[in-house]
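Exercise 4. Each item below gives a protein and its sequence. For each, produce the structure-token representation.

Item: Glycoside hydrolase (Acetivibrio mesophilus).
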Amino acid sequence: MKKKIIGCFVIVLLLALVAIIPVGYYLYFKPNDNVVPAFLEGELVLLVEGDRVVSKNGPKLMEGEILLPFDVVKEYFDPHIFWDEALGKVTITTKDRVIRMKTDNLNAIVNNEPITLNIPVTVENEVVYIPIEFLAEFYGIEVSYIQESNVIIIDYKNSIRQIAEPIQPEAVVRKGRSIREPIIRKFDLTSGGTSENTLRIFEEYDKWYKVRTWDGAIGYIEKRFVVVKRMIVEEFLEQKDPKPAWMPPKGKINLAWDMIYSRREDHASLGEMKGLDVISPTWFQVKNDKGELINRAYSKYVDWAHGEGYQVWALLSNDFTDTDMTSRLLNNTDARDNLIKEILAYAALYKLDGINIDFENMYNSDRDVFTQFVREISPLLREQGLVVSVDVNDIKCYDKRALSQPVDYIMYMSYDQHWSTSPVAGSVAQVSWQEKILKRVLEEEGVPREKLLLGIPFYTRLWKETTDASGKKKLTSSALTMKQAKNNIIENKAKVEWDEESGQFYAEYTKDNTYYRLWLEDANSINLKASLAQKYRLAGTCAWSIYFVSEDIWDVLNRNLKEIESYQEWLNQNRDNQYKFP
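Answer:
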């Protein structure tokens, strides 16, 4: 009886399995044959490569032209596109172009040359729309509109494209990587290979490809149903920063600023500046928030400099004392444009070789608009054959990584470690402090070493500490030339010792109940600082300023920047240095 019951149970179980297996096959193994639309009817869809762009504001078609919302352009094609809401102007910068477009205006400006648009920048419901087809060449993209599916497709030109075609009738494109996913495209293979059967592959999985059909449907197809026909390389060029507009014929760059605010009649008074490549006179200064300039340039200076073999990179500065004016200038597209046009005109008039941008004492909140200004001026200066450099320091108003992209060189003002009104006395620039800066700037802030020039001070600060009747101490300082500082030590018979951390001679003395201190910049300290250019393989050095220098410094810089070829060679030559004050 027991055996009969067990036998009946087995039979019932087998019958149940027979009944369940077809249901299980249907539920888990039978492909889904449902066909669903890839897009909602009437919906204008934007695709960038293999991804659908979903944003708060979608694309638009106007008079047959494609317009994209500003935020989409910024996210996918140009993180630096700039919108001046007050003036209704859009600015686009590339490595060699500056494009300006105004809302509801068919006239655009490309590198100061007018060009006519088919459709203007448009503002609708506070959303800025950009005519993207006009910018396709500048952004290196291909833009197409598929009317049959109402899909806009944008592809990057610099890309590798894998093309596949279906080879079996069962080939279908599904919404997901499973045969249970619905079908969004079928193929007609009876007429052979056609463009409508072509698929572009974007991603590869174990058994599936992510693909895009000719009309923009994005989905997945099983590998076994397709063959990869070919691979197309569309202008696939390695993106590298362009070489600087100028490099010295030998060694590293030796640049010095010339603090000159009036005409110098006798240039021979500067003496021989051996090894100097570039001289940067302080000629141009922003006059007002309209972008007008104060011009101190004169042709005789350029003729003299070129005759001596020096490049002339004129300095362009803001008004260091008027932060508000600088802010108004930087935040106004027309003012920036006026300033750029003025400096281009002066550069051509005086036959300059470069422009050195020195904007200081800016609001931290103007960090991005200053970078925008540098992005706008750099392509236009380069188009005119000029070298572009920008001065920075540790203040947060400088986005050093971003600034290093459009310019040829970054001048790091690595001095004023203790500045004129510093609350404590100290060195203008300890060599250990400079080295610490270099490590951070190169490793953390991403400034390319081949673009970086280390700032070197040619001046010394004399610190003066007085005490009044109540015992209150007051600290002041004054800048001395190298010669003045050395003579000051000798004349006052100051106590002198070599300070290893500073890489300088430290001196102190008391006179008339006043305590004096100074950290001397001389041939010894400059030798140590200049060696950092070799140690960190920098582009060179930049020094402030010729007015403060002593003649023996040029030999030091020439040796370290032009004759020595490596840091190891410098170490070998300086291993037995003995530091003794004369």
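Check: The first helix runs from residue 2 to 28.
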